[in-house]
Amino acid sequence: MYKPNRTYEHNDQSRTVVINAKDHVAGKLATFVAKHILEGVPVTVVHAENLVFTGPIERGVGRFKDFLNKRKLTNPLRGPFHHRSPSMLFTRIVKRMVPKKKYKGQCALSLLTVHDSCPDDLVSTHCMVCPRAMLKYTADPIRRFYYMKDLCFKFGWKYFNEVERQNKAVEEIKQKEREEKEKIAERESSIRESDKFKRRVEELMAQIE
């Protein structure tokens, strides 16, 4: 039976890697994610709708139309399944990078979670980025690109407006958290600059000496 190189508990949130996929190239980020889940590291990807494909969007539309024409002639219910949501499209990209028919690949895919926008329970979680997969570090500045949400919206993704509203709500929550941290920092700095605090520090230093 396959055992990952490093085993982690699924409910251990401290060891889960949370990635903010905004402005990341989909294929490059998928290689990073596939490597980690094969090593046994749980990975959660948020803001999958802001993943990027390089090239003109007309090319992406043509490729997706060709993908929609693919089906099993004898029984179409067996696939391939044409998902419209960005989270499922990215999951499919990662799925094609692991041995999905083996037990090894199935264990790896069970460690992957992809979300459109950001769930409420992950708003305050520290998210990492992958510099080698970000558009501004990897692609030519003059190269055209398009977002995955625009492609999915063209082919019938129904939750575009709901995801945009969720993103605005998440941004408001983060803005409030930043303001609270600034207030706490100002309060701490005012306490450090007060005469009472300085006298107390001098008393403690005198006791140490």
UniProtKB/TrEMBL annotation:
NCBIfam families: L13_A_E. The keyword rRNA-binding does not apply. This is Ribosomal protein L13. Residues 160-207 form a coiled coil. It comes from the Eukaryota. Belongs to the universal ribosomal protein uL13 family. GO terms for molecular function: mRNA binding; structural constituent of ribosome. The keyword Glycoprotein does not apply. Keywords: Coiled coil, Ribonucleoprotein, Ribosomal protein. GO terms for biological process: negative regulation of translation; translation. It comes from Vavraia culicis (isolate floridensis) (Microsporidian parasite). GO terms for cellular component: cytosolic large ribosomal subunit.
